[in-house]
Amino acid sequence: MATDLTAPQPAAPRPTETLPFDDWADRILRGGELTREEARQILASSDRDLLALLAAGFRLREKYFGKTVQLYFLMNAKSGLCPEDCHYCSQSKISTAPVPKYNILKRDALLDAARLASERGAKTYCLVISARGPNEREMNAVEQIVPEIKSKYDLDICACLGLLSREQADRLKACGVDRVNHNLNTGEDYYGQICSTHSYADRVQTLRHVRDAGMEMCSGGIIGMGESHDDIVSMAFDLKELGVQSIPLNFLNSIDGTPLQGKQDLSPQDCLRALAMFRFVNPSRELRISGGREIHLRSLQPLGLYVANSVFVGDYLTTKGQAPEEDYQMIRDLGFDVTTSVGE
Ligand code: SF4
């Protein structure tokens, strides 16, 4: 039987109402804040609403960072051999992953990496060691290399050395460290599920020492470890209350040989919603798409930069990143620019 195309067609189903992301962005742009309930709603929002969410989040990103992208360069200055038991980490004492194991690298290797960071257009050189906290030998090595790197290259230095005492934080500040990374990793209520050798409170205390010593705080987390939306929201608001300047958001790269081996709970859309939620809660803060972006965001990586304003270029601590040329191409294709200046 022929269909009569001139006959009235049934109306298309009415879409369910989209959350008022633009109203929330308006409020934030006027100096207001996102509520915890709204943050939960962002994480629970539908894939259908994703473009509206990213478009509203982009308005916040654009206010503080325009179309700039900051690049960070990671250097694993000491690998493996860590006495802690962070379940996501291939370098912990309970991991059987075959990662390189070496003590803190010598001066030449650390300087070579700084040269590479500079050549790649990085704004910040992140000097990372695997440790509960730095011992005296490691502190001395950092105190010697940081002034040398800064005298040769136009790089900010971020040190990620584990838990710090106030005295150690003061020494890092004195030798020229600009910023310390120490991630909260997950929400306070979930922290005991991913680590038993130190506490969430220990991590917060280190961040306070960093702040009180006059350095910037870099702190973020890892999504996809089995936490709830409430845990992610709780972390985002704790980072806001601490006043961290920079937020690296990782997506669990579950490494064989770690307790979280095989855990693959994230869709690319989940990652984008999490990034957007962090932008709404911390609108003026650097937001960096960090480890796991290639695995979890996959072909949607460029969309992440509509709300985030920073990526690591090159490899991660014990896993490979995509080639730097692919990142530069992605940034150019978006019409964005690499910057080495500070956003706020
Ligand atoms: S303290 Fe750092 S290096 Fe050690 S297990 Fe935890 S995350 Fe890994």
CATH superfamily, by name, is Aldolase class I
Shape designation: globular
Query: Level of helix content?
Result: 40-55%
Number of helices: 13
Mean pLDDT across every amino acid position? 91
Low-confidence stretches: none
InterPro entries: Aldolase_TIM, BATS_dom, Biotin_synth/BioAB, Biotin_synthase, Elp3/MiaA/NifB-like_rSAM, rSAM, rSAM_sf
Cofactor: [2Fe-2S] cluster; [4Fe-4S] cluster
Enzyme class: transferase
Subunit structure: Homodimer.
Task: Provide tags for this entry.
344 residues, alpha/beta, TIM Barrel, ten-stranded parallel beta sheet, binds iron/sulfur cluster
What is the element layout, followed by pairings?
Blueprint: H1 21-29, H2 36-44, H3 50-65, E1 68-78, H4 107-119, E2 124-129, H5 136-152, E3 156-160, H6 166-175, E4 179-181, H7 191-194, H8 200-212, E5 216-218, E6 221-223, H9 229-242, E7 246-251, H10 268-281, E8 286-289, H11 293-296, H12 301-304, E9 310-312, H13 324-334, E10 337-339
Parallel strand pairs: 1-2, 1-9, 1-10, 2-3, 3-4, 4-5, 6-7, 7-8, 8-9
The chain binds iron/sulfur cluster (SF4).
Quick structural summary:
Helix content is 40%, strand content 14%. The protein is an alpha/beta fold and 344 residues long.
Describe the structure.
The chain is α/β, with parallel strands linked by helices and about 350 residues long. The chain has a single domain, classed as TIM Barrel (Alpha-Beta Barrel). It contains 13 helices and ten strands. Strands 1, 2, 3, 4, 5, 6, 7, 8, 9 and 10 form a ten-stranded parallel beta sheet that branches. Strand 6 (about 220-225), helix 9 and strand 7 form a beta-alpha-beta unit. Helix 1 (about 20-30) packs parallel to helix 3 (about 50-65), helix 4 crosses helix 5 and helix 6 crosses helix 8 (about 200-210). The termini are far apart. The mean pLDDT is about 90. Iron/sulfur cluster binds near residues 84 and 130.
